[in-house]
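Kindly inspect what follows.
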Amino acid sequence: MYTTRLAYVHLTVRHLESAVTFYTRFLDLQLTERFGATALLVSSENTGHFELALTEGEPTGTAGLGFELASEADFEAAKEFVRLEGVPYKLEDRGVAYVLTLQDPDGNTVELFLDRRKRGGRAFWRGESELIG
């Protein structure tokens, strides 16, 4: 077998500027390139050209995106920033991770999570979730 890793996600969004603002402001992604109705973004610690492609158009469905946070301090900072900005969110304890869930301007689910498997969390999710906060 061979090893793979998720390299990028491509979303169609209704308003490119709103989507770029959301992902750069709330997820600290950096704009790497823009052409036509498309913007390419990358997370601050990735050396790749892009991880998220956004193209303006009519979305055909929704997607789910997961962004891992490196530490409890980062998770708390993200939670506080989202709260202060007045963005609706949900907090969950999934045993394996704490998850902060929001919606982007097109209704795509965006999850910021803190992996807890090596920090006192469970080894497996088992589909269980408890709302917190």
Observations:
- DSSP finds two helices and nine strands in the chain.
- The chain has a mean pLDDT of 90.
- The first helix runs from residue 16 to 26.
